Amino acid sequence: MKKNKVALYYSLIVVLLVLIGISSFLFNYFYNLRGEDLSLEEMTINEANKMSYNVKLFDNEFFKSSDEETNYVLSLVDNINTYFNYSTVFSSPVVGEYSYYVKGSVIMEENGEKVSNEIYRGDTASYNVNGSVINLSSSFDIDLDAVVRAFREQVLNLNLNVDSVIRYDVVYSYKVYSDELAKSLVNSRTLSVVIPVKDITNITITEDAEVMRKEFSDLNLDDNKLYLAICLEFIGAILIFVLLIALLVRRINGQVSVYEDALEKLLNKYDSHLVYLKELPDLADYNVLFVEEMEDLLATSKKTKTPISYIEVVDKHEATFMVLLDKQVYVYKFSSKNV
Amino acid sequence: MKLKVSNRMISYLFAFSSILLALACFTITKSFSMPESSEGLKKWNVYLDGTDTRGSNGNVIVSHDSFNVSLALSNHNETYQVNTKIKNDGGFNARLESIDITNLSNIKIGTSLKTGVTYYLSDYVSLSFKYAKDNKSNNVYVDSDVLKDDLLKMGTSNDVVLLIKYKDLKEINADALEVFNDNVKVVSGGRVIRFNVNVSMHYVEAY
């Protein structure tokens, strides 16, 4: 029975050690998590842009699309009509606004140094968004003939001989707020039409693109407190497991420890009446009388004016107190069983 | 006595540690949520598809949700027609926010020296835009207010027709005709009007 109990206690200790290991691992994981910018919420944003242009020539006055031809005689180009489309799709609804404006500039380059002069700036058009989609389409005209004439007059006056390009940019931006991420999202994109100022020019535009990206919520204080709470719970569990193991170990050795404490108390209490024997005397010729309590033995000792002999017969398990007289011996047995 | 106390303490501690562990597991499961898979992300895709034209001396260029028609009309009653569809292949229902069409009344042809009246392209060319509202072929014209907020549901398309006509001589008054003749050159025996019309169909998300 006692052996079964001890085996059970040892099994429990093993289980507790495994639980301590698991709890320690999880505590460490969540403790490290608190320091990282790890978010629990995620949003996917799909951003696409398209651009195309049509050229109106003086000579045949037919529009040519950007799909058909890319080289033009600059002097024959009257007007370029440029179309653009931005679409932004959020995986969850947002609220905010988006806007765009068009700006034109002439960029001159001489000896590796670039100088940009703004020649046009359109009004900013703003719109509201309350949903998952921003879809912006529009077009604008570049009066290329007028721009080139004005630029050439300027160059002539300044007597410059530089490489230059005419560039028109469509700047699109949005600023929206996401309830799911609990933060604002801001982004800006620029699409460009570039026309080198030379006799045979090639018009280049920003290529169509589609990009998918992710945005994450910030690890806020509430999340931090949550991780702290998880860490404290695991620490608490670990401490309790350790305490349980200590108690179980003490329990296994429990009876022995209790016996030793009690024996020590007895020895301290009756020290003045005790004689410590080295070995157990031969009691074969004695009439052995057992007493129930130590007090009874003490009373006998006092009456007979005989000291109490003490010897521990089984180490940490049994001790014998005796009062030896002529033919009789009074014995008090103190063992771990009766503690 | 001590053993009993010891037993009781062990059981209380076991119970308390179990509660702590259960609480920790509950807190963890509650705090985590699976992020939305990017494969399920809906896309926005409203565009013009399948353009068909009737008439010569014209060219149509389609750019996503906009198309541009460049024309050189030389004969009265000559027409040019563009048939196309606006299609919603995306994951959102769409609502028509606006249709922007080149206003022919803004393209100046000339001013009469006799009357001082300025004539515009709209005096010589008529334009009609038809749109199949509510996915039905009911041919609603662009100047009707009912077109705005028309719903284009996912997976559906609406028919779009643009008809441009060089007006009959009878529809043009004499003064206008004189201004026209003064300002538009004769090419190969006819007076050719060269212009372009841009049509943009702007859709937004429908809720």
List the helices and strands and how they pair.
The complex is a heterodimer of chains A (339) and B (207).
Chain A: H1 2-35, E1 42-57, E2 63-65, E3 71-73, E4 77-110, E5 113-121, E6 125-142, H2 144-158, E7 163-178, E8 183-196, E9 200-202, E10 204-205, E11 209-216, H3 221-252, H4 254-269, E12 274-276, E13 287-290, H5 294-304, E14 308-314, E15 318-324, E16 328-335
Parallel strand pairs in A: 12-14, 13-16
Antiparallel strand pairs in A: 1-2, 1-4, 1-11, 3-9, 4-5, 4-6, 4-7, 7-8, 8-10, 14-15, 15-16
Chain B: H1 2-31, E1 46-54, E2 58-63, E3 66-73, E4 79-88, E5 94-101, E6 108-111, E7 118-120, E8 125-131, E9 140-141, E10 151-152, E11 157-166, H2 174-183, E12 186-187, E13 190-191, E14 193-205
Antiparallel strand pairs in B: 1-4, 2-3, 3-14, 4-11, 5-10, 5-14, 6-7, 8-9, 8-11, 12-13
Protein described:
- With 339 residues, chain A is of the alpha+beta class.
- Chain A folds into 3 domains: 67 residues; 176 residues; 82 residues, no CATH class.
- Helices cover 32% and strands 46% of the residues of chain A.
- Chain A contains 5 helices and 16 strands.
- The longest helix of chain A has 34 residues.
- Chain A is rod-shaped.
- Chain B has 207 residues and is an alpha+beta fold.
- Chain B is built from 2 helices and 14 strands, in the order H-E-E-E-E-E-E-E-E-E-E-E-H-E-E-E.
- In chain B, the strands form 4 sheets. A 5-stranded antiparallel β-sheet of chain B has the order 1-4-11-8-9, with no helix packed on it.
- In chain B, strand 12 and strand 13 form a beta hairpin.
- About 2% of the residues of chain B have low confidence.
- At the A-B interface, helix 1, strand 1, strand 4, strand 6 and helix 3 of A face helix 1, strand 2, strand 3 and strand 14 of B.
What are the defining features of this structure?
heterodimer, A: alpha+beta, five-stranded mixed beta sheet, 32% helix, B: 207 residues, five-stranded antiparallel beta sheet, 2 helices, 42% strand
